[in-house]
Amino acid sequence: MAISIYSKNKEDIEFQYWERCRNLPEEKLIALLRHNNFKLSLEAAKVLQLKGGSKVIKLAQMDCFSNSYKRRVLAAFILGQINLNSNEEKVSLDILYNLALTDKSAIVRSYAVSSFGHRCNRAKKYLDSLLALAKYTVLDKSVNVRESTAIALAMFDNKASIPLLIKLLKDTNSDVKDWAAFAVNANGYDTPEIRNCFVSLLNENNFEVRYEAIIGLSKMKDKRVTQALIKELNKDIIYDEMVQAAAYLGNVALLPVLYEIEKKWGSFNELNTSIKILEHLKSKL
């Protein structure tokens, strides 16, 4: 997928800030956390996170109680993936849990959920705590918090998260639904309710949401996806994953559209494989 000019410029700016920060001493990095330019402060926080150390950990834990929401955001971010001992981890998880539930700033709550997820991913024994937190954050009024919840749940293969993901699949925001569908597909969840949610998502205007639904239903071999897949395969821009989905689904009704793709674009590995699989299935009928 092509990178937009906006995304490219954003990446260039982030890289410039990273280059500015990566060799700075700890004190100067800490000073940059107070900078008016939040993006620069965030790159400084990334470097501090990598460097680690008790001083940075204590500062981050203290800043979680700062009057400045930006400092709380940066603090929550640092605590997400910095190396911690068992005691520091327990304290940090308690802080992040409370921020995720009670902070008045939605962006702070969002970062706290994300960091809590990262911490639980590093120490799987805390997964139950993430599930307990997510029961509340899936209902948060902030789109960012609900999206962060879906991303956090994507990190874990645990069927106990399915009811939470179903709530997120029914969200009003397309980005939330996209990440929830991604979480379902990443972990291979398959239930009748998930399938029904995915069928509903086939009508989404957002391509990323439709993409996840089509891929998911195809892997589940749910033939209700057939017409949506044919529609995508008839477009001027065709993604390899959509061609592969034809093989996942295993519906020989897709052969004509695959032949048309071959006629128009020539053969390629994904197309050849899908045609071969479907022709084999057809020969068995």
TrEMBL record:
A single GO molecular function, which one? deoxyhypusine monooxygenase activity
Instruction: List the InterPro entries hit by this protein, alphabetically.
Output: ARM-like, ARM-type_fold, PBS_lyase_HEAT
Q: Which domain of life is it from?
A: Bacteria
Matches recorded under Pfam families: HEAT_2, HEAT_PBS
Q: Which PANTHER family match?
A: HEAT REPEAT-CONTAINING PROTEIN 4, PBS LYASE HEAT-LIKE PROTEIN
Q: What is this protein called?
A: Lyase
Give the species: Snodgrassella alvi
